[in-house]
Amino acid sequence: MPESFFVLSKDHLELAIDEIIAIAKMYDRFAKAKVISNLVIIQSKTNWNEITKRASFVKISGQILRKMSGLFLDENNSEVLKNAKTFVCRVINLSSNQINIPELENSMGDMISKFSHAKVELEKSDIVVYLIFTDKENFFGFSKQTGGEKRPIKTKNHPHELDWKLTRVMINLIGLKEGETVCDPFCGTGTTLLEAESMGIHAIGLDFNEKMYEVSKENLKKNGYKSTVLHTDFQELTKISEKFNGVVTDLPYGRASKISEKPEKILKKFLSILPKRKKMAIMYKKELDSDLKLKGLKKYEIYRHKSLTRIILIR
Ligand SMILES: C[S@@+](CC[C@H](N)C(=O)[O-])C[C@H]1O[C@@H](n2cnc3c(N)ncnc32)[C@H](O)[C@@H]1O
């Protein structure tokens, strides 16, 4: 079974690791994962690039060619360079050892040039060959240049809008597939709707504030997206529950956005009306957490600043 590697940013490492595993298992339920610090190795039939396209916190990714016993390339590994005109070597040192990276990259480049027709090209090479060092084991991998993914755009930014990476991670953690539908009952500027549609997931947004409803609609239009936005209270979601597979939302904080009642009341009411069988990924401020009697659900803490830590709750 092919193996892929994902070097993750350390900003929200637990979330980032769980996201990669959730995406890999969504595409292939037999996928296996190994985690070495911020490196995740996935064994699955899904191509590394499919997983990378959905993920939020991947810095570098590619396919593992084989584990290294030494630093030597053999002829089997040169297959990958067969149709490439250009290549570059990159060393990723996740180990605690000091490594002279430029020297190693140069000597690897020289060595590969000897048995391949491909030439070294530092900027936009067809293939990147990676040597990955960790304290446990070392890997040898490669990736091909892929066109950067087009990001959704917004007409204007808003103080209470959610970071797109956290929104995307929530969608991925509940394993929504292309063609399924997500509902965001507090959609604000429509971040969830935009992220979902950029991944081929349909979306329905609700917001009781007419201004936010208009902003969401404009943002969808700007991207040529077709998700639905309803100008209504979140409780309307019970009437449309047949239309979506999961809920992803960032609840009101009572700070920058308009609010119908106190955040704690909204959260409790929301949890009580949410259809039990639906998947959910919700975010709310940590102070509200102690009042909730929720057991067995996965929680992540997201520190924003001294007076705001948020919880992401997954079901
Ligand atoms: C924290 S913001 C959501 C931000 C959103 N994730 C974004 O990226 O723009 C909460 C939203 O909930 C909306 N809201 C507050 N009370 C509501 C209610 N009773 N029903 C529906 N929406 C409500 C507010 O208008 C606000 O847009």
Blueprint of the fold:
Layout: E1 3-8, H1 13-27, E2 32-36, E3 39-43, H2 48-54, E4 58-67, H3 75-78, E5 86-93, H4 101-115, E6 119-120, E7 127-133, E8 138-144, H5 164-173, E9 181-184, H6 191-198, E10 202-207, H7 210-222, E11 228-231, E12 246-250, H8 263-273, E13 279-285, E14 298-305, E15 308-314
Parallel strand pairs: 5-6, 5-7, 9-10, 9-12, 10-11, 12-13
Antiparallel strand pairs: 1-3, 1-4, 2-3, 4-8, 7-8, 13-15, 14-15
S-adenosylmethionine (SAM) is lined by residues 158, 160-162, 186, 188-189, 191, 206-209, 212, 233-234, 250, 252-253, 257-260.
Question: Short summary of the structure?
Answer:
The chain has 315 residues and is an alpha/beta fold. The protein contains eight helices and 15 strands.
Overview of the structural elements:
With about 325 residues, the chain is α/β, with parallel strands linked by helices. It has two domains: about 5-145, VC0802-like; about 165-315, Vaccinia Virus protein VP39 (Rossmann fold, 3-Layer(aba) Sandwich), CATH 3.40.50. It is about 25% helix and about 30% strand. It is built from eight helices and 15 strands. The strands form two sheets. It has an eight-stranded mixed sheet with strand order 2-3-1-4-8-7-5-6. Strand 14 (about 300-305) and strand 15 form a beta hairpin. The longest helix is centred in the N-terminal third of the chain and has 15 residues, at about 15-25. The mean pLDDT is about 90. S-adenosylmethionine binds near residues 158, 191, 208 and 252.
